[in-house]
Amino acid sequence: MKSPTAGDLEDCLLNKVGVRRQQLSQIVEEVQSVVHHLTTEISHQDVRFQAIPYSDTYNGNIKVLAPSQFLVTVPVKGLAGYREAREQRWRYYTLQGTRLSCPVQDPEGLQQWLEVEQFMKSLWQWHEADVNIEGDIVPAKVLQVFRKLVENAIGTCHLSGKVSMLTHHSAVWVAVETATRQVELELVPTVEIPTAWSEKARWPPCLKRWPSRQRAECIKSFGFALLACSHYHWQLSFLQAEQVLLEQLDEDGGCRRKCLRALRQMKEDVWCPGKRPVITSHHLQTVLFWTCEKYPHLRDWRVFSKAFLRLVRKLHKCVSQHFLKHYFVRKSNLFRYAGAGDLDAVAQRLALFLKSPQLSQP
């Protein structure tokens, strides 16, 4: 194969990207239909959970992490007027509500407690014992309620032949049979907070040229969200802010998004294929954001081959070091819970590619 600067790498990769996008759009359409039917039924059964409408364009509640792995954020209703907790307090309860002699570990990085009193308005159902312990809305209890609702909705919506629960997870996962492949969805109850920016996200730092200060303030105006992913603590998420940042990447005519699509294609085909890959689209997106910050000028994003290989080198460095900082909460490592052996295997494939860039490994 010729040098990637000759254009061969770009042409081949972008042809494959076009095919992937077409295939994936059909899968997303089927997934959207399933999610809409399930969440509409769930919302009828429990007013605290919101139905996800079907969308002909981009659906912000459905995130493709890999072709067979989707994250679906299910907004909750009845919590409005969020404010940060005013004082710290120790928690001495188990998930069953019994008393502990030692406090539960405090949240780290992307995690936080959530008290019902942090909202100026709340439905009485959020004060109930099925989700609330000593004033805290507890994600594990919310997931317990939500899981039963999903199980019931699959039957009520007559989707048993198409959708099945995956029971070996503490989170709520379902498998969906589409026309071309089976995909797995993680359905996550989500508290959307469009009126504030998390105090843990000290972004942007001073003296950074990308994005502009004005653009950063616009992105922060979209707020953040809290996902029910763990036992005691809610996980911070910035999916909407990240999407806005992605949409505005190439207003100067650069090739940043083209590079991201190509990076994702190589990740899925060669470096890290599989149903639940250790590297997801969110990791690649984060690598791109960091690289954009380091190289903020259009001149660094005019030539695809140079820009693409720069991204691959950054990805290789992060994977080799088992360390990828979250873009907004910079004390958090996105590879913290990834398997070291899995990361090392990806690093080896990336090193082979950088030695001789081609679309398949020798």
**Percentage of residues in strands:** 15-25%
Gross morphology is globular
Q: Which sheet architecture does the biggest sheet show?
A: 8 strands, mixed
Q: Give the helix proportion (percent range).
A: 25-40%
Counting DSSP H or I runs of 4 or more residues, the number of helices is 8
Distance between the first and last residues' Cα: 12 Å
Question: Tally of extended strands?
Answer: 12
Gyration radius from CA atoms, angstroms: 21 Å
Q: What are the low-pLDDT stretches, counting only 5+ consecutive residues below 50?
A: 1-6
The SSE order reads HEEEEEEEHEEEHEEHHHHH
| Secondary-structure content class | alpha+beta
Q: Give the overall pLDDT as a whole number.
A: 93
